[in-house]
Amino acid sequence: MGENTFSFGSAVAAGVAAMAAGGLFLWQQTNCLRTTAYTVPALPGFGGFTIAQVSDLHGKRFGKGQVRLLRRLEAARPDIICFTGDMAEERNRSLLPLEELYRGARCIAPLYSVEGNHEPLFCYAAEHTELLHKYGVHDVTNREELINYSGSAARIGGIGWAYPSGGRRYAFPEGIHLNRLPDILLVHDPNTIRETAGRTYLQLSGHMHGGQVALPGGRAILSPRVDSRRVYFPPYAGGIYNEKGTILVVSRGVGVSSNIRIRCFCRPELTVIRMQGGDATVSMSKCEKISHNFF
User: Fold this and answer.
1) Which of 39, 46, 261, 266 has its CA 20 to 30 A from that of 215?
2) Which residues, other chains included, contact 1 with Cβ-Cβ below 8 Å and sequence gap of 6+?
């Protein structure tokens, strides 16, 4: 009797310990930021130029005042910070996480933004647009601007998400000319690379969340909805790619979707892109990756 009681008690204790360990692991995977840095060949005159990319915040907070996210942005010492869509969450009614981020980030570097699929549906979409103006965020959705750096200039622009009648799908809006895309292109959906490849130098995207729940090693299992469907083992889930001479950097994002509130083997990711000397002839052997996995 005593031996059976001991065995049962030990099994319960082991089960509780395993659940606690699993919960701690998932909390860490969902909330502990990492920085992934890529070094790529520079645009002419842009050697040393550094871009920090934040994507898919979905209204998430990283400490009071977004302090943990802002510390990582500051440590990257970027020349510009780019927000590549879904900073707001369609079902999240709070603007506070966005205001905290924009207010702090503007003190680090100039800010550029493109809308994702959630911003047009955000219940406070107009108020979010006001926040962008209030904190000097350059909204380059379906437009472009010039960036000046060390006496050289490059074009930065973005393409917004389109919701045509009859369903949600990505489409290029009128007025966007594929043969005259900016040098640095912000577009939320990385699958647009099929149209933009070879027509821009650097494309920054998000949307895929790295699958959010991935296999060990980070291989995404399932994509968010693209053209009203999900894709198993999506090809552009996160990382750096070279498509016809266009460098595509896909951030795994920092937030979580409304229907899956955890991450697993896919931690929240701040992406940093550094342009290094030489010309802009791209091969993957010239692109280097450094991951900083500390908390």
Assistant:
1) 39
2) none
Domain-wise residue ranges, the chain: 1-31, 34-292
Cβ count within 10 A of residue 239: 18
Kindly state the percentage of the chain with pLDDT values over 90. Answer: 56
- Residue range 251-269: average pLDDT? 89
Residue 18, token pair as written in the block: 């395993």
Could you give the CA distance from residue 220 to residue 236 in angstroms, rounded to a whole number? 9
Model pLDDT for residues 165-177, shown as the tens digit of each residue: 444 444 555 556 6
Give the range with max mean pLDDT: 18-22, 46-50, 121-125, 221-225.
46-50
- Its pTM stands at 0.86
pLDDT, tens digit, 9 for 90 and up, residues 211-225: 988 899 888 888 876
Q: Does domain 34-292 have CATH number 3.60.21.10?
A: yes
274 strand-pairing partners:
39, 50
The residues with which 87 forms a beta bridge, in sequence order, are none
**Helix ranges, the chain (H):** 2-31, 67-76, 96-105, 125-134, 193-196
Listed in sequence order, the residues at least 6 apart from 58 whose beta carbon sits closer than 8 Å to its beta carbon are 86, 87, 88, 89, 92, 118, 253, 255, 256, 257, 258
Nearest to 54 by CA among 10, 109, 15, 126: 109
User: Rounded distance, CA 68 to CA 30, Å?
Assistant: 14
